[in-house]
C-alpha cells in the first residue's frame, strides 16, 4: 500500500530506488550523499530490496560497476556528489555514449578548495554536456517521484540515455518532509520491467566501442542528440502518465508560477526556485506583477518553453547558484541563447547567488527583484552578471 | 570507404560484429613469407600454437598450412619449427 | 573447457580471436589472448580498458574478437568486470567474466580498481598481458618496466625496478595468482584451466613480448620468452589456497635441477637493454635485482609451502 512517511530528501531517493525495483547499486560514500546509499544498503541487507549492493573503492569504480551491470540488462543505480562526480566523470561520459539508461542522483555540493560540503550546482553543470538527461528537483516528493519517472523515460527505447537527478545538498538532502511512497508492486503499473535497447549476450557477440574512424564517429553523436530530442518530446508525457498513476505532477519540463499576468519573471533551479515562489507571494501582496519559472529539465534544454514563458515580459531575472568563471551563470547563458533563437528581446538580468551554500532567503530575492527592475528601467544593456551577495 | 551510407543504416550503439580481416588483408604487411615443406612437417602444431595471427591451419593429414591472407610474416613459425620444416623467402606480391 | 589438455594437439581448433586483426607482427599479447579465449570459450564476456587489445580488435563496424566484449575506460577494467558479473549473477547466468588489460592498465592506472575487486572477492578472472611499458601509446615507461630498459620516457634506461604485481595480489587476497608465458604452452594452459575452475578473484600475469617496443626482430618472440624463464628474468609460479609453487622450468631452477643461463643471452637480442649492456655497473645492478627477486620468491615459497594449519 502506498503511504505517506516523513523522510529526508536523501531517503526519498532511496525509497525511489526501492519502488523502481533497482537490482544493482554500486556506490562510494561522500557527504552529503551518504544517507542515500546507507539506506539502500540496509534495504538490500534486510531483503526489502532484491538487489545487490557493491561497496566499491571509488566513484570511478562505482560508475564503472554500474555500467557493467546495466550492460547485462539489469536496472542499476548510483548516487554521488561534487568531487565524487568529478572523479567518475570519465565513466559518466562512457555510460551515456554506451546508451545505458542508468539513473544517478547527484547531491549538489560545491567544489574545493576551500573544502565546502554545502550546495552549489557547479558539479552537475560541468556535466551538462556528458550526454545525460539532467533534472533539477526542489522538494522531497519530487526527488522520490523523479527516480521512478527517470527510469521510465531513460529506458524508453527511443531515449536510452541515462538521467542525472540533481538535488541541493543539505537544503534538500537532509531536510525532512512528508513523502508519499508506493510499493514496487504498485509502481509496476507505471514503470514496466526493464527491456534494454541492447545487452551483452554470448548468443550474439559484439564488441561495444572499439575504434571508429572519423568516417563513422560523427553519426553516433548525432544519434545521442536525437535521443535527447526524443526525451524532450516525451518528458511531459511521462509527467502526465505519472500524474494518472499517482495524482502528482511537477509541471513537466518547466514549472510556471503566476506567469499569466506577470510583467517580470524570476528563473531558478533546485531549491532556490521554492524560495523564489515564497518571494513571489510576498511581492504579489505588494502589487508587483511577478511570476516564477522553475527550470526542471536542463538537458535536453526546454528552450521553447522558456522562450514562450518570457515572451512579452518586461524583464527576466535569472538566479544562478553556479558560475562559469569568465562569463556568467549557466542558466542565464542558456536562457539568453534560447531567447535569441526565438527572436525574443526580453532583457535578462543574471544574479550569481548562493555559491558554496550561502543562504539565499526569500527576503533577499524580493530585494534582488527590485534591483533588477530598477536596473532594467534605468539602464540600457548589455547587462553583466551581478554578484549580488558579494561582500563589498 | 564507409559501408554505412546514411544514418538510417547505423546501429544505435557502436557495436562491431566479429569478422575476419577486421584490419583488412593483413597478409599485405609481409616482407618475408614463411613456406612449409610438407615433406618435413611432423604435425607437432607448435607453429600453429605460437602464431599470433591465427594464420596457420591444420589440414586433413594433420600437417600445417599457412593462410597468406592473414600471415604478417613475423616468422615465429620459421624460427620455432623443431624440424626446420619452414623456410623463409622474400615476399614478392604477385 | 571440459577436455583435458596434455599436449598442444589436445587444444581445440576453434578460434575466438579471428585472423586479420591489428596486432603488430610477432605480438606476444595476440598469442596469449588467442589462447585465453580458446580456453575460456564462447561462454565468456571480456572487458578491455585502453591498451593494445583495444586497438587490435580492428575498426568499427568489425572486430576480431568473437566473444562479447565491452571496451571500458583505462582505469576501470576490474570494476566493470565486477558489475558485469553481478548483473549475470542477478539473472542466474553462469558466464566467465574476464578483464584483459595491459600492464599500464593494471600496475598503474587500473591498480586501484583491481585491488578493490580482489578485496571484495569478485568472481572474475583478470589477465594482465605484461609487455612492460605503455606500448599502445608508443613505448613509455610504466610501473612494470624493468630496471635498465629503454623507453621513450626513459631514454637512458629506467632507473627503478618494476613493481611486483604478483606479490601484491597474494597480499591482496586473490583466490588464484599465477604468472604465465606463452613460450611454455602447457604451463599456460594448465594455469588458465585451473583458474577457470576456481571461484573468486583470479589474477594471471602474462609475460608478453613486444617486438617494436623491446627492439628485436619478431621471429624471436617465442625464443625470448623461453630465455626470460631460463635466465631467471621471468619466474613461473602459482599461488592457490595459501600455497606458493614454482612451476615448469622455474621449478627446476628453484630446486637446483637446472642452472640459470647467463642473463646476457636474454638482454642481447633486445635493443631496449643496450644501455645496460654498455655499462657494467648497470648490468651488475640488473643482476642484483634478479637475484634479490629470486631470494624473495624462495622465501615466499618456504613460507607458503603448505596451507596454513587450522
Binned strand content of chain C = 5-15%
Shape of chain B: elongated
Question: What is the strand tally of chain C?
Answer: 9
CATH architecture of chain B: 2-Layer Sandwich
**Class inferred from helices and paired strands of chain B:** alpha+beta
Note the beta-strand portion of chain B. Answer: 15-25%
Q: Segments of chain C where pLDDT lies below 50 for 5+ residues?
A: none
Briefly, what is this?
The complex is a heterotrimer of chains A (392), B (94) and C (310). With 392 residues, chain A is of the alpha/beta class. Chain A is built from 13 helices and 15 strands.
Task: Characterize the structure shown.
The complex is a heterotrimer of chains A (392), B (94) and C (310). Chain A is an alpha/beta fold and 392 residues long. Helices cover 41% and strands 18% of the residues of chain A. Chain A is built from 13 helices and 15 strands. The longest helix of chain A is centred in the middle third of the chain and has 33 residues. The mean pLDDT of chain A is 98. Chain B is of the alpha+beta class. Chain B contains 2 helices and 5 strands; from the N terminus they run E-E-H-E-E-H-E. The longest helix of chain B is centred in the middle third of the chain and has 5 residues. Chain C is of the alpha/beta class. Chain C has a single domain, classed as Thiamin diphosphate (ThDP)-binding fold, Pyr/PP domains (Rossmann fold, 3-Layer(aba) Sandwich), CATH 3.40.50.970. Helices cover 39% and strands 14% of the residues of chain C. Chain C is built from 13 helices and 9 strands. Chain C has an 8-stranded mixed sheet with strand order 3-1-4-5-7-6-8-9, sandwiched between helices. In chain C, a hairpin with a 2-residue loop joins strand 8 and strand 9. The chains are: A alpha/beta (392), B alpha+beta (94), C alpha/beta (310). Chains in contact: A-B, A-C, B-C. At the A-C interface, strand 3, helix 3, helix 5 and strand 9 of A face strand 1, strand 3, helix 3 and helix 5 of C.
Amino acid at each position: 500500500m502506498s503511504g505517506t512517511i516523513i523522510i529526508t530528501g536523501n531517503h526519498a531517493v532511496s525509497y525511489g530506488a526501492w519502488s523502481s525495483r533497482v537490482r544493482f547499486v554500486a556506490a562510494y560514500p561522500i557527504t552529503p550523499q551518504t544517507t542515500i546509499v546507507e539506506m539502500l544498503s540496509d534495504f538490500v541487507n534486510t531483503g526489502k530490496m532484491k538487489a545487490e549492493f557493491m561497496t566499491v573503492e571509488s566513484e570511478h569504480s562505482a560508475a564503472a560497476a554500474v555500467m557493467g551491470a546495466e550492460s547485462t540488462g539489469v536496472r542499476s543505480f548510483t548516487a554521488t556528489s561534487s568531487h565524487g562526480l568529478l572523479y567518475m566523470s570519465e565513466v559518466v561520459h562512457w555510460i551515456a555514449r554506451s546508451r545505458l539508461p542508468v539513473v544517478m542522483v547527484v547531491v549538489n555540493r560545491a567544489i574545493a578548495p576551500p573544502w565546502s560540503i554545502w550546495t552549489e550546482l557547479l558539479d552537475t553543470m560541468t556535466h551538462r554536456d556528458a550526454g545525460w538527461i539532467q533534472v533539477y528537483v526542489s522538494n522531497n516528493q519530487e526527488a522520490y517521484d523523479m527516480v521512478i519517472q527517470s527510469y521510465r523515460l531513460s529506458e524508453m527505447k527511443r531515449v536510452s540515455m541515462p538521467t542525472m537527478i540533481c538535488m541541493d545538498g543539505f537544503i534538500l538532502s537532509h531536510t525532512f518532509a512528508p513523502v508519499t511512497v508506493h510499493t514496487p508492486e504498485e509502481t509496476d503499473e507505471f514503470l514496466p520491467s526493464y527491456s534494454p535497447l541492447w545487452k551483452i549476450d554470448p548468443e550474439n557477440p559484439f564488441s561495444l566501442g572499439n575504434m571508429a574512424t572519423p568516417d563513422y564517429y560523427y553519426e553516433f553523436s548525432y544519434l545521442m542528440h536525437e535521443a535527447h530530442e526524443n526525451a524532450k518530446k516525451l518528458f511531459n508525457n511521462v509527467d502526465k502518465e505519472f500524474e494518472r498513476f499517482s495524482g502528482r505532477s511537477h509541471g513537466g519540463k518547466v514549472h510556471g508560477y503566476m506567469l499569466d499576468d506577470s510583467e517580470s519573471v524570476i528563473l531558478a533551479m533546485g531549491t532556490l526556485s521554492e524560495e523564489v515562489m515564497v518571494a513571489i507571494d510576498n511581492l504579489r501582496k505588494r502589487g508587483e506583477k511577478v511570476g516564477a519559472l522553475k527550470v526542471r529539465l536542463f538537458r535536453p534544454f526546454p528552450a521553447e518553453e522558456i522562450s514562450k514563458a518570457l515572451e512579452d515580459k518586461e524583464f527576466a531575472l535569472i538566479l544562478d547558484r553556479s558560475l562559469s568563471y569568465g562569463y556568467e551563470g549557466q542558466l542565464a547563458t542558456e536562457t539568453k541563447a534560447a531567447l535569441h533563437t526565438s527572436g525574443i528581446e526580453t532583457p535578462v538580468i543574471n544574479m550569481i547567488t548562493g555559491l558554496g551554500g550561502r543562504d539565499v532567503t526569500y527576503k533577499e530575492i524580493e530585494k534582488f527583484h527590485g534591483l533588477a527592475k530598477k536596473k532594467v528601467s534605468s539602464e540600457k544593456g548589455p547587462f553583466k552578471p551581478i554578484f549580488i551577495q558579494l561582500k563589498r | 570507404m564507409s559501408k554505412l551510407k546514411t544514418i538510417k543504416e547505423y546501429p544505435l550503439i557502436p557495436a562491431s560484429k566479429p569478422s575476419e580481416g577486421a584490419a583488412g588483408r593483413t597478409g599485405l604487411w609481409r616482407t618475408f613469407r614463411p613456406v612449409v615443406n610438407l615433406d618435413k612437417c611432423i604435425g607437432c602444431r607448435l607453429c600453429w600454437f605460437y602464431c599470433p595471427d591465427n594464420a596457420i591451419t591444420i589440414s586433413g593429414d594433420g600437417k600445417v598450412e599457412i593462410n597468406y591472407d592473414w600471415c604478417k610474416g613475423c616468422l615465429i613459425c620459421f624460427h620455432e619449427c623443431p624440424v626446420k620444416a619452414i623456410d623463409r623467402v622474400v615476399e614478392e606480391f604477385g | 573447457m571440459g577436455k583435458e589438455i596434455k599436449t598442444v594437439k589436445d587444444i581445440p581448433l576453434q578460434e575466438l580471436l579471428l585472423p586479420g586483426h591489428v596486432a603488430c607482427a610477432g605480438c606476444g599479447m595476440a598469442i596469449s589472448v588467442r589462447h585465453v579465449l580458446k580456453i575460456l570459450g564462447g561462454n565468456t564476456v571480456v572487458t578491455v580498458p585502453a591498451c593494445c587489445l583495444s586497438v587490435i580488435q580492428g575498426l568499427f563496424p568489425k572486430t576480431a574478437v568473437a566473444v562479447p566484449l565491452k571496451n571500458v575506460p583505462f582505469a576501470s577494467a576490474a570494476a566493470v568486470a565486477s558489475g558485469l558479473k553481478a548483473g549475470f549473477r542477478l539473472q542466474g547466468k553462469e558466464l566467465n567474466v574476464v578483464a584483459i588489460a595491459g600492464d599500464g592498465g593494471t600496475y598503474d592506472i587500473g591498480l586501484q580498481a583491481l585491488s578493490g575487486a580482489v578485496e571484495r572477492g569478485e568472481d572474475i578472472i583478470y589477465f594482465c598481458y605484461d609487455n612492460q611499458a605503455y606500448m599502445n601509446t608508443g613505448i613509455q615507461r610504466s610501473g612494470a618496466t624493468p630496471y635498465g630498459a629503454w623507453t621513450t620516457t626513459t631514454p637512458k634506461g629506467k632507473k627503478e625496478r618494476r613493481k611486483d604485481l604478483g606479490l601484491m595480489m597474494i597480499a591482496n587476497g586473490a583466490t588464484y595468482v599465477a604468472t604465465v608465458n606463452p613460450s611454455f604452452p602447457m604451463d599456460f594452459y594448465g594455469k588458465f584451466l585451473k583458474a577457470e575452475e576456481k571461484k573468486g578473484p583470479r589474477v594471471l600475469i602474462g609475460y608478453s613480448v613486444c617486438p617494436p617496443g623491446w627492439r628485436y626482430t619478431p621471429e624471436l618472440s617465442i625464443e625470448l620468452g623461453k630465455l626470460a624463464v631460463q635466465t631467471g628474468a621471468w619466474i613461473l609460479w602459482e599461488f592457490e589456497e595459501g600455497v606458493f609453487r614454482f612451476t615448469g622450468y622455474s621449478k627446476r631452477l628453484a630446486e637446483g635441477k637446472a642452472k640459470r643461463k647467463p642473463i646476457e643471452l636474454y638482454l642481447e637480442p633486445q635493443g631496449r637493454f643496450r644501455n645496460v649492456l654498455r655499462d657494467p655497473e648497470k648490468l651488475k645492478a640488473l643482476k642484483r635485482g634478479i637475484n634479490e627477486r629470486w631470494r624473495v620468491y624462495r622465501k615466499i615459497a618456504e613460507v607458503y609451502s603448505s596451507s596454513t594449519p587450522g
